[in-house]
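User: Some background: our group keeps a shared notebook of sequences we're curious about, and every so often someone picks one and asks for a predicted structure to add to the entry. Today it's my turn. The entry only has the sequence so far, pasted here. Could you supply the structure so I can complete it?
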Amino acid sequence: MNDRAVALLEQYDIEVLRTRKGRGAILCDTSDGCLIFKEYTGNEDRLKMQDKLLHRIEEAGEVYAELLIPTKEGKLSVKDTDGSTYILKTYREGCECNIYDKAECISAVKLLAKLHGCAEYTPETAEMPELFSPAKEYEKRNRELKRVRKYLTQRGQKSWFEICLLNTYNLFLEQALSVTEEWNEYCRLYGNDNSSVKINIPAYTYCHGDYQYHNIIKSGGEWFLINFEKCQPDDGIRDLYLLMRKLLEKSNWSVSLGRELLKGYSDERPISAVGFIDLYYRLAYPEKFWKIVNFYYNSRKTWIPDRNGEKLDKLINQETQKQQFLNEVFRDVEVLRK
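Assistant: Of course. Here's the predicted structure to add to the notebook entry:
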């Protein structure tokens, strides 16, 4: 971030004592505490939604989270001369949630449940939006997977990574197609095709959208949540799924950890049968494989980072453990679907 961008801070009613570089942002020590100034790539409507959500969380008083700082004119963002958009937010310095500390991981899911309690809306307080549909997203990803498989098959001289990718392709593509087909069938029977299978649920939740350990900060003995830029209306399972997948991949899909994470969340906010099924399908879909394929296809092919191969190897090596985890922890899904 350049000096020109720092000059934009003059548009805020704050006294900046000093600035220093953070991770892709500028940390500002001010008379009102530490703030963070960073580039924003979303649209204004999403920023307004984020601001509304953060104030709702603050009013509830159950969870500590960042707040957007408006300019002197009351705007939520400022623009540089090159068109880049920036936002200013409250911030606390501290340590990220330790993914290898089980107690902190359990605290993170409990905190998430409290967050969802603060962010819940009912039809009386807001109009019901069109919720995120996993099935629609999966169908889009499946088309991408098929397109890349065709590309790989027709490609002439293949690298070692491309050969390994192609050798495992059918396994994960069949998983993706099967999960999507089952989810669609469940939607047709018990939900509707335009939502995330909401059956007689009178409320919806604004999810964090990127609830992972990088955005869960421990500062002064308290948890502080940051980076709500991807917040959106969806079932709270969306956030729980992302955090669980990240933690379970790090623990080789530990059954005991998975059960403790589910218990930690449900102790604060019970998971319905619909939510349990939702979580199962999100975990069952091979998202990690899709991400590896997507990154490969949208990058230059002349040089493929070794990291890509390492991620693919890890995914393949963990596949048996993942399936054992799903079979063990979600053995009741087949009964619940009926």
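Suggested note for the entry: The first strand starts at residue 16 and ends at 21. The longest helix spans residues 160-190.
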